[in-house]
Amino acid sequence: MSGTVAETGRIIGIFFDPPMAIARVGASPEPMEAYRWKVDENPHRGVQTRIEPAPTLVPVPASPAGEPPFRLKVEMPERIVFKDGKERVKPVAPFFELWARVQARSGKVTAEPVTPALLARFGTRIHDLQFIVTAANRKAQARTKRAADAAIARVVFRADSYARHMLDAVSPHTEGEVQLVRPDAPLPLGHVQTFLTEPPEPGDRYRLDQVRLRFTPGKGDSFGPPEASEAVASPLAPGDFVPHVTEYGRIHRMTRPENRILSSGSPWLGYSFGADTSPKWPTPMDSYDGARIDPGRSWGLIDDTCDLVIEARIAVAGHLLSTHARAFAGPPDFAPDRRPMYSIRDELEDRELPPAPVDLETTPNEILDLFRRVFETASLVNLDQRRDWALSGNAWMHGARNKNDPNWDEGISPRLGPASMRRADAPYADLTPDYTPGQGETLAPASGASERLPYTTVVQQVHARMADSPVLRAYLARRPDRVRDLVRPPFGWVSELPARVGVTPPAEVPVGRHHAEGHAPAPRGAPLRFRDPRTLPDTSYDMRMPPFMRHSMGVPLSVTRRQYDLLMAYLDKLESDPAWRAEPGTDEGGAA
Amino acid sequence: MTGTPDRKIRPLNLSARAAGPEMPAYPEPVLGNPAATLMDSGVGNCFPGLEFDLRQLDVRFFPGLVFSFPGVTPAGPDGTQGAQLVYADTTGDPVFAEDYPWVADLALALGGPAGDALSDGQWYLHAVEQKGRRIELYDISVWQNALLYTPYEGEIAWWIIRLIERDPDPALADLTIELTQRDAQGQPTGQPVTLRGKRRAYLDDEGMISGVYHPGELTASMCSPWTHDFRDCACQYWASNHPDVVLGEMDDPNDAGSLQAGQEPAPGDPLQPASFLDWMRRRTDPARDVQAQTTIDGARPFRYDPYEINLRWQELDFVLQGQEAKATPAGGTLPDRKPPETPQQVYDDLRLNLAPLEYILALRYLYATFSIRAPEEVTPQEERAWPGLAADLRAARQILLSVAISEMTHLRWVNQMLWSLSAALPGELPGYRPAVGPATDCVDPQHSLALERALPEVIAEFVALERPGGEIDREYEDLVTHLRGNPAYPAGLFQLAVRIDSDGLAHYHKFRDIARILAPYEAQSGLYLRTLTEAPPDAPGMPQALDLLDAAVADLREGYRAEAASAGSNAERSIAEARIIAARDRMHALWETGEALARDGLGIPFFARLPGRAHG
Fold this sequence. Notes:
The complex is a heterodimer of chains A (592) and B (616). Chain A is of the alpha+beta class and 592 residues long. Chain A is 19% helix and 21% strand. Chain A has 3 domains: 5-217 and 305-330, no CATH class; 222-303, no CATH class; 355-444 and 451-493 and 527-573, no CATH class. In chain A, strands 1, 7, 8, 11, 12 and 13 form a 6-stranded antiparallel β-sheet that branches. Chain A has a 5-stranded mixed β-sheet with strand order 2-21-20-9-10. In chain A, strand 5 and strand 6 (70-75) form a beta hairpin. In chain A, helix 5 (363-378) runs antiparallel to helix 8 (454-466), helix 5 (363-378) crosses helix 11 (561-576) and helix 10 (480-486) packs antiparallel against helix 11. The longest helix of chain A is centred in the middle third of the chain and has 16 residues, at 363-378. The two termini of chain A are 50 Å apart. Chain B is an alpha+beta fold and 616 residues long. In chain B, strand 5 (138-143) and strand 6 (146-151) form a beta hairpin. Chain B is elongated and about 95 Å long. Classes of the chains: A alpha+beta (592), B alpha+beta (616). At the A-B interface, strand 1, strand 2, strand 3, strand 4 and strand 7 of A face strand 4, helix 3, helix 4, strand 9 and helix 5 of B.
């Protein structure tokens, strides 16, 4: 029975937690168990991130028939097994919890799980809660610019409709248009499902009375028209194109027979980015199967990934409350204990948040976390390949006649050719030449069958240390100017770039802005400046950190502006303020 | 339930998180979700990305307008590249529900003459202006007394837009954009349309990407199928989810495995875990267990082909702590040991045992490095008879030298532990004094001072020294236990001991690798070893070499002393920086000197000047 507003307060909104989640494809019917990141505490392995099993929600049928509805029970797996017994990858299928924002008579707002009891308190019920889920794959549409090449699924159901709601997508069309995906052979983008709630029992560690929705993505399969059965594959490296020579390369199947369900009449089959000279979006333009062999005609393939919006709607006391969440179906995270140093979160924070506060309580940990993630990414990078690729590209961009000539970039600093990361690349190169004295100024390292990717080995060794707080803090404090030189500055904001390229340089990095009052820094040479995406020097690859890696739109990668500003501020503090150099837990530190 | 989420904090602003001093916390997924569902697990730099393409946010950077960013085809620019207006439409855009004067003005403009103009023909973003800086999206040059405008390609145009700031005040309209049409030569033409507004907030109040983006829009620009990108992209920038290189599968990748119990790796995996494997290698290829190549072209034949990957991607291995693995380990416990009990015991062990040991090992390993012939000393005849000899020598020297340098770094960390302990327990422990080299008048007899060539038995001794479960390993393991368990110590101090201990495991693998690399030449040591003998300290060149070593040691001592004092003094910080750089310069000189002498068969008697030791 519902109470009055005076007794129960009121619901002023509902929301999902998480508001956005990544699902990851896999063909196994068993979803991936839950796991969390945790620091490894074993002295033999170093301080690094590991994953450990976490409480996992397992659907169990409510009746002996084994059919929906399902309820959820919590299990703690002993270990995380990534593939099932048939070697199929387990998909990551995220749950979304539904919450309500409840305002008490005092005005205080609290978040409460949406449960049958909560809804009853406010005069409504689970049956009145509606979900609308819209999922789409618009990859073909993005190239052909034709809505009939999109694949869209939309399901509407009540929260107590516990069956699997299949996200079977079809192409919208108008009369006479050929649909890429026909209703009789829809594209399976996965499914969504809700679960029977369980009344809480005293002593329960987990609340299973909350409304949850789960998105299970597709299998990660490719789909195409009947023509997309098998074809000759380019034997060249990524980014290279093979002339139209059909006997060239090996022949492979590209789709399963049962997945050749798309229409042959769509222009997506046979689309070519080079068919005319007009500029194309999205870029890279050659990002579809078929693009690698001249004339770059598409085999008409799409996949069962998508992004989707989940909407929850319920009317309470005459007001319609609604909220949304998003999910993205992407590839598996094949290295689940290695985190990106430049994550989606970092990119969103960089776009949305003001600069991070410089605070002795928080900044050291934030920078330490960044360097741990740098190590985690760096530990899986083939830096030897990256270096060769990037320096070869530099030679092309700069018009060098011989990319192997160690002197083609004479006078440029940091070096862009074979001398990059070698002793001649002073003052940037330092440790790498120490560790690799047998290497000369070459693009690819001298490396026989027994050699161990020399540049890759060094980057792992060096960054493993930087993941340790005492080592990192001591190094940053001891060599602040070296770190300033070594970390590639990000591009400046619009207001920091010159109106005309080359007339004036971009703004200086404000080195010393966070120095302690009265600190007199040692003089620096040329000022450190933000980069300009319009200039050749600032879009050439060099050994500054992160070395030789690629950013959005194919330019050299830097950390985000927000990360960079915080790192520069931390260096200022470490350089000028003894309190920041003191170890936490000691009298000088105070951070503990 | 996963606690009570506060939308004002989550999902952003978690940056202030901390599990404790020196220990950043990890973001936690909600109940039932793996960490791989978090935005922290996805890559944020996109060309076009893995999970979704964040560049798509900028397609709608200006409320009411939708852009695309075409790049040029191989045929070159045709004047239509850059930031093209796709359409102008305020319908369904949540910004226009906001109650700010600039929103009303913009709605009026787009619903009136500006909107009318933009609906006719193809328009382009011409310029953006923020904080008084106006940037035109053109490369501008002078040509026959006129300005020639060459539109930036989509990539640069996108970056300019990405670099527009979002002021936190939603009422502040701080962005002006201009749109123009272009003539057949790509030159801006006609009357521009100028709009004033603000860069869109991409996240709503709930932490979700704005509802203005339709389902499917954020993944529309990604590869089709996704496996195309996974195999075919030249970027290789997402190693955290899509490794470039890995170590092969071991029984127990995370922890507590047989190696750590001091057992040998299983036979049949001689390369494990010293060699990198190409993660994208075709699993059925005989070359699947050959080390990764140094160039993309070199690696290409061994990787999955285009199309093949579409049906084979599930053969790719998951990777834990850099090694291919089927699952997380089932658990396991470390041997129960009795760590040192008092700070004084720890202090004494660091000062009298471990600091001298690290110094001695660094020089013993350096001496052994000098004993291996440089690749350029291999004659063409030798290389013909022993293919790969020069490369093997280079590899062995490189690995051995890296261990020697690593030991010098350990010496520094032992000193850092000493000064940290002294500072933490000033009444209980003596003040810090640098410990570089043996600290007492005589060297611990357990520390061998033998300077020997890299003969098989010597490498075997090095393997034994660094062996997991060996004496050094156990010493550091005990140290970790002691430091971690004592709240009187600085919170992160134990990490130094962890690092040294984990390096020891790496050294062990590296020495085993050296043994394997040099094994084919065992019967003819002259092929890989110089005729190096330890020279008397007064032999030509030796006093100068030993002076260099002494000077480097003096610089290290002074540098460490200054660094220990730098917690209270900026002047000492500067001294520490200068002296440690000087020490490194001297070690570089010592390397060059040692190499020159070694080519003549002369080994530097590194320990000749140790107190109480006569050369013998």
